[in-house]
């Protein structure tokens, strides 16, 4: 996450603001707003969804196994399927349904990053109406090797949708 810096006190906040100002100027970003949020501990996941006529389909949950505790939050590896219990998986899925309903999203891809605290509470920390970036989409294939991008375009053009379930025989993958 570019420009995200953890600061636990005033001194660290001042240093973090200097860094974010530098990032904003180097990237020639027009938006000079800095967002300050509370830190949420826990295990981080990226959840890929496709919403079709209001129904939420979980395409994949990527585990981020390296602890992202700061002060910087470099993402190093993603693993899918995640190494979590069925009940933890279900809690994440249920929270995704709540996010989509609250945002009134009816169609399209969603990329939601969450933190799951040790007490099991799921916190969405980044919500975007897009699919996952980088090489991660390369490991997601559906019904006869249909790519994630083909699935999204089919949904956007209101074409017949292939089976959204992923092949069960595919081994775990890490990016």
From TrEMBL:
Pfam families: ATP-grasp_4. GO terms for molecular function: ATP binding; ligase activity. Keywords: ATP-binding, Ligase, Nucleotide-binding. This is Phosphoribosylglycinamide synthetase. It comes from mine drainage metagenome. The lineage of its organism: unclassified sequences, metagenomes, ecological metagenomes.
